[in-house]
Design goal:
Elements: E1 9-10, E2 14-15, E3 53-56, E4 61-67, E5 85-86, H1 94-100, E6 106-108, E7 115-118, E8 123-129, E9 134-140, E10 150-157, E11 168-174
Antiparallel strand pairs: 1-2, 3-9, 4-8, 5-10, 6-7, 8-11, 9-10
């Protein structure tokens, strides 16, 4: 069956490829920007339409992040294992991280044109996040060009996890 927009429709599930389950978010950039909009760098802007939920973990969990190599293998590079953005699944490839998690290789200030940072993707880390940690989770926001993110790509923000007792990098695997 087809609808007016030439989309194939399954009467039971709606438009094929579209999840009918709508997730409710506590915060969004229009009605209620929430605590992340007030933080330095406005992390809320990295969520699609600023949509995210905040919760406190009731048990330890394992999350993943990709970044510069050496966090567990090169003395003096331990900081490479931690950042503030995580996913629930390990990275499949550099290309998938760049597109789905909208991670640009370079970050340019749109007002000045100045380079403000880089995001090398050489390793994926599994990180133990302890019970009691506050996490913010929502869909990845579009970052321009081919850095898409989207409703089906979730990310988790944890403010300064390196200051949280019990956060522990567990493994480092090279990604391609």
């Amino acid at each position: 069956m087809q609808n007016n927009y030439n989309k194939i429709v399954n009467e039971e599930k709606g438009i094929v490829g579209v999840n009918k389950t709508e997730i409710k978010y506590d915060y969004n950039m229009i009605e209620n920007p929430g605590p992340l909009a007030e933080m330095r760098g406005n992390p809320a802007s990295n969520f699609l339409a600023g949509k995210y939920n905040v919760r406190t973990l009731d048990e330890d969990i394992i999350l993943y992040r990709s970044g510069k190599k050496g966090g567990l293998t090169i003395p003096g590079e331990e900081q490479n294992a931690l950042g503030q953005w995580f996913t629930r699944e390990p990275a499949e490839s550099v290309a998938k991280v760049r597109i789905d998690s909208a991670v640009k290789p370079q970050w340019i200030d749109p007002k000045t044109g100045a380079l403000t940072g880089t995001s090398p993707l050489e390793s994926t880390y599994s990180i133990k996040i302890p019970k009691g940690t506050t996490i913010c989770e929502g869909p990845v926001g579009y970052q321009g060009e081919s850095y898409l993110g989207g409703e089906s790509c979730n990310q988790i923000f944890i403010s300064e996890p390196w200051k949280i007792k019990g956060v522990e990098p567990l493994s480092e695997i090279q990604i391609k």
